[in-house]
Every structure is written in C-alpha cells, then in structure tokens.
Design a protein that fits this description.
The complex is a heterodimer of chains A (386) and B (251).
Chain A lengths: L3 E6 L4 H11 L2 E7 L13 E5 L4 H11 L7 E4 L5 H8 L3 E3 L5 H7 L5 H23 L10 E8 L7 E8 L4 E9 L3 H19 L22 H19 L6 E8 L5 E7 L5 E3 L5 E3 L18 E4 L5 E5 L16 H9 L5 H16 L8 E8 L5
Parallel strand pairs in A: 1-2, 1-3, 3-4, 4-5
Antiparallel strand pairs in A: 6-15, 7-8, 8-9, 9-10, 10-13, 11-12, 11-14, 14-15
Chain B lengths: L2 E6 L7 H14 L3 E6 L7 H4 L11 H5 L10 E2 L11 E5 L5 H10 L4 H13 L4 E5 L6 H9 L2 E6 L3 H16 L4 E9 L5 H12 L2 E7 L2 H6 L5 H4 L4 H14 L1
Classes of the chains: A alpha/beta (386), B alpha/beta (251).
Chain lengths: 386, 251
C-alpha cells in the first residue's frame, strides 16, 4: 500500500475535522502551521491543502516553495467567507467544504482512490528508476589540463533513453566520452540505455590486443592507441544487441570519441548519430558524419573509425536530436540551422556554451512540453597562451 | 629516419636474442645510435646478455605497457666502456623478469598500439639511427606489433623441420602485413654443411634474401647467454658473420 502524504496548512479549529477524516482514509497528515517553511530537499508532499482565506497568488507562492520539482496538486478548503472560494475555483483549484465526510473527501482528493494509489505507486517507482538511472551518468567527466569536458542531460519523461559517459582509457593515456540515444522513449528505452551504457563501457575497458589482426592485417591501417578499445566497444555492443535482442528491435545512435589530450587527436566512431559539430577557434564548422550504422541495428554493420585534431580554442559539440527536434507551442522544430548559428558566436567556456544552448531551447519551447530527451556534451581545448 | 628491425623466429631456440644483442652492439661500435627493445614479454632475456642486474632493473617495458611510467623511464644506456666509435650509443629497454608481473600483464592485456607509439617516441627522444626488436617466438601480439612497425623483419631459423616449415607461416604473415623487407638468417648450422647450397635452397623456398648463414660454435655454447659474443670474441669467425649481418641489416 502506498502511503499518501498531505501537507495541511492552517490552524483553524475546523481543520482538525479535515485532518481526522484524512487520517481515517490512511493519509499521513503533516501540519506545519499557518506559514510553512518546508525544506526543499527530502520527499515532497503528494498534495497540499490550503485555506480559502489565502489569495490565489499566496497559494501559488506557498506551493512553489514546498517541492523542488513539479508542484504537487492543491486542494483549497473553506475557512471563513464562502465568496473567497470563488477566486480559487477561477484559478482552477479543486476545493472541499465542510462537513468533511469520508466519501466526499475521498472523491475530491487525488490519491485516496484505489486507481489513484496505483498511479502514485507507478510515479514513485519511476522516480526511483530515474534516481538509479541518473546514477549511471558519471558524477564527473575526466579532467585534463588544457581541456574542458562537460555534459547536460534533461529527460523528456520520468526516465530516458539518452545517456552520456566519460572515462579514462588505456591506463589514463586517453579520455573516452560518448553520447547515445536509444530509439523510443520512456521506460523501455531507459532499460536498454542501462544495458548499452554498461556494455559500451565494459568493452571499452578491456584490452583485446589481437582484435585488429583479423580483418585489417595490413599495417598501413594499424590502429592508434585506444582505437582498438573504441572499435571493440562499439562493435562488441552492436553484436551483443543483435545476438540477444534483435527481436525486441532496440538500437541506439552512439557517438564515441577517444581523445589524446597531449596532441589533441580525436579518434571516433559515429554509429548513426546526428553529426557532432567541430567548431574551430576561428568559427569554422565541420560536421562529423556517421562512420557506421546505429549500434544494434544491422547484423553486418561495419564501424569505421575516423580522426580529427582539436587545436587550441577548438571545440566539439555532441548532442542528441532532442535539441534540433525540440518544438515550440506552434509545433515548429528548433532546427539544426538554429543550433549551428548558436555555435557560430565565440565561446568562452564549455559551460557557457551549454548554458547558451539551454537558454535558447527554453526560449524556443515556451510552454510547449518537452517531447524528447535532450543531451549535449562539449569538449573544448582551451586556447593556448598567446 | 631510423631503421626498425624486428628479429623473429617461428620456434624458440633459434638464436634471436643473441642475434639482436650482437647486431645492435656492432652497429653501435660503428658509431650509430642504437636501441634494443625486449619484446619477448613471456620469456625476456636481453637484460642477461647486457648484464643488467636484477637489482638495477627499475622500470621495464611491462611497466610502460601497464601505464606506470613513460617509455623513456625504461631505457638503460649500456654503451659505456665498450669503445663505441664517435657518435655511437647503445640503449636497452628490458622486459620484466618478475613472473607475477608477467602474468599480470598477460591476464589484463594492454593496448598493442602502445608498442608502436613507444618505438616512435624512443627514436625521437634518443635520436636513434636503428631500433632492434627482439620478439617472442611464434605468432603473438608482440611479434605482430613488431611486424607492424618494422622496416625489416629478420626471420631467424635453424636448419630443422619445425623451424623451416614454421618459418613459411612467419614469412607469409609478414608479407600479408606489408613488411617492406623480409630477410632470413640461418643459424646454428652444423659444420660440414654445404653453406652455399643451403643458402640457395632457402632463398628459393621462401623467396627471401638470406643475409647470413651462421655456424654453430662451441664458444657461443660456452658463453651460455652470459654476455655479448662480439665483445668477448672480436676476432672470431662468428663475429665476422655477425658483422656481415649487421651491415646488411643496416641497408
């Protein structure tokens, strides 16, 4: 049974009856008094009950303060003048009037009915799922002198099919990073994201010295440091997905880069991912096109590796299509052109660029719902002295 | 541009390490800057020939491959007191004799590309003219890596069936990988064998140049890996043969 937590605001005697009825329905009632200052951390209440003597604006301010995320549902109860209730009803609030009979309260309070309780349970489970999934994201990306590596991820729903990662490779001689977007959304995509993230990282950390001998025996095509691991990670993950999960039809677009921080050399595989943008210090842009199909998509998919060099002041912007396909209230996409235009202006730091894109996305979306997960990662080589 | 020579054999006991140590020493005596790298990770031995004491081992190739040091940290200069001609230098990158560490490395593996990167870096940092790579017998990761970076692969073989048959595989792998120059060294050839006929037969069999036919000799057996032959027996006919190999490998 899921416990429903209600925050009951107000000190009037009539509130005691409401509290008793709620308790009788199995609701845990917290009564912080007339002016609550609840912490923004910890578990937020599932609903907030407020007296009609407050103005709608006061209610809005109060509710905004009780939870860090989305505000919980609000129910206004009558205290004093019945006309005050009208303003709240106008503002779209649900309401209760005495006497607070169990049947009436149950009908009005979301979560006290059986189906609501189930919904609440699912929501809580999803919340836990996201906590676990976000724990799969690296707490910090590897740091190297002269380099910035930062990433942001904003899920469209409770859990998401996007992920990014960053870790050391070849005993710290290289830095690996990736952005991936599992097809589909929600829980199913999230489960495959967890699987593929683990496969990619696990394969990347293995040493398979002879991997390059099989097909590319010609010494002119010999892999560089970290390239075998990169190739093994992408190809191994793809083969695993096809061998075990082909019928489920899940795959992911993946951009996986391996950086040599000393030389600025970047070796990468782009498995069907929308092309990252390499922005030169002078403002010129190069798109890093796919070097293979999406990971887990084609049984005989071949993944080539490609190389570029980041000179001082250059940066690489890797993102998921949740950015370019973000919609505004009129249903218009954000578009790649707008993104490329944003990347054209000078960039002071990786964080500044992430903020810039995030702000432009917010301005574009307005009140429209976020349709897809949004992930972006910036690798920037700091400009050299002089 | 430094010349990189990989010394390889299909089976053990062909005399790779001796050839490596002696050729490298002769080239350094001639005034070249030479490094030898012990890529025989499972069964290292070059440090013995160059008399590097266990106590002085310090960082080895294995430590570099496991990310514990840079390749420069593994280099020993061993040319002092050898009477090298002006400009000559002789360096050794030993492997590890610590059995546990060898197993460690073999179990966890390493990025094979580190070997090529190490050789390029050695050439650059030590201004080398020649790098000689001693490999483990047979087809394995280190020998494939050596083939990948070498300008010349010298296949050492004894006149016995396992060596002669197996060397076909070695030569064909080296060809497949596009090694620019593949040469054969016939070693431990018994007295009384018609050397010219053996050389001709071998060249025909492998379609490779035979750069030397080295005789089996008691003095080498007596040395028992306790030093570099050409330094101890400068006038020996085997030394003359090694000198011939060195000059041909030098190109």
């Amino acid at each position: 049974v899921v416990e429903l937590r209600a925050l009951l605001i107000g000190t009037d005697r009539s509130v005691d009856d409401l509290a008793d009825t709620l308790s009788g329905l199995g609701v845990v009632v917290q009564r912080p008094g007339p002016a609550p200052r609840p912490a923004r951390s910890g578990q937020p209440p599932d609903l907030v009950l407020v007296p009609s003597s407050l103005t709608p604006a006061e209610v809005a301010a109060l509710v905004a303060g009780v939870a860090a995320g989305a505000p919980p549902p609000v129910v206004v109860y009558l205290d004093g003048d019945a006309t005050a209730l009208a303003d709240h009803i106008h503002a779209g609030r649900d309401y209760l009037v005495p006497p607070y009979l169990a049947a009436q309260v149950r009908a009005r309070i979301p979560g006290t009915r059986a189906e609501d309780a189930n919904l609440l349970r699912v929501e809580r489970e999803l919340q836990i799922a996201w906590e676990i999934q976000s724990g799969f994201l690296p707490r910090a990306l590897p740091a190297r002198d002269g380099w910035e590596l930062e990433a942001r991820l904003r899920p469209a729903h409770e859990v998401c099919g996007d992920f990014y990662d960053g870790f050391e490779m070849v005993d710290g001689r290289r830095v690996g990073f990736l952005v991936a977007d599992v097809c589909d959304k929600g829980v199913s995509a999230a489960l495959f994201a967890a699987l593929m993230r683990t496969l990619l990282r696990s394969f990347a950390e293995q040493n398979v010295p002879t991997a390059w001998i099989d097909e590319r025996v010609d010494r002119r095509d010999l892999p560089g440091i970290g390239e075998t691991a990169l190739h093994t990670a992408v190809e191994g993950t793809s083969e695993y997905m096809i061998r075990n999960h082909l019928e489920q039809g899940y795959f992911a677009t993946v951009f996986f880069g391996v950086l040599d921080p000393g030389s600025g050399g970047l070796t990468y595989v782009n498995g069907g991912h929308n092309p990252p943008v390499l922005r030169a210090a002078g403002g010129g842009q190069t798109l890093l096109a796919p070097t293979g199909p999406a990971v887990g998509l084609l049984p005989d998919g071949r993944f080539e590796t490609a190389k570029v060099v980041l000179d001082p002041g250059d940066l690489l912007f890797v993102y998921s299509d949740g950015i370019t396909e973000a919609k505004n209230e009129q249903g218009e996409f954000f578009t790649k052109d707008r993104l490329l235009a944003l990347l054209r202006s000078p960039v002071a730091s990786a964080g500044e660029l992430l903020d810039r894109v995030a702000a432009a996305l917010r301005a574009h979306a307005g009140t429209a719902d976020q349709y897809d997960d949004i992930t972006m990662l910036v690798l920037r080589r700091r400009p050299g002295p002089g | 541009m430094a010349a990189v020579v990989a010394v390889h054999s299909y089976a053990g006991g062909a005399g790779k390490s001796h050839l490596t140590a002696n050729v490298a020493t002769l080239l350094a005596l001639d005034g070249l800057r030479v490094a030898v790298v012990d890529l025989d990770i499972p069964a290292p031995g070059l440090h013995l020939l160059f008399a590097i004491a266990d106590a002085d081992m310090g960082y080895c190739l294995k430590d570099y491959l496991m990310g514990e040091c840079e390749i420069e940290d593994t280099v020993r200069e061993v040319g002092a007191g050898l009477g090298l001609a002006a400009g000559g230098a002789l360096f050794v990158v030993p492997s590890s004799m610590d059995g546990e560490r060898i197993l460690d490395l073999q179990q966890r593996g390493y990025d094979i590309a580190l070997l090529g990167a190490a050789i390029r870096r050695l050439v650059d940092r030590f201004a080398l003219d020649v790098v000689v790579l001693d490999t483990h017998a047979g087809t394995n990761d280190e020998s494939m890596a050596a083939f990948a970076v070498a300008d010349t692969v010298a296949v050492v073989l004894r006149p016995d069936l396992q060596h002669t048959r197996g060397s076909q595989l070695t030569v064909s792998l080296a060809r497949q990988m596009g090694v620019p120059r593949i040469v054969m060294v016939l070693n431990l050839v018994a007295a009384g064998v018609d050397l010219a006929a053996l050389r001709a037969r071998t060249e025909e069999q492998y379609r490779c140049e035979v750069v030397a036919v080295l005789p089996d000799c008691q003095e080498m057996t007596a040395l028992g890996s306790g030093g570099v032959f050409v330094l101890l027996h400068p006038s020996h006919r085997l030394t003359r043969c090694y000198r011939d190999v060195a000059s041909r490998l030098r190109g």
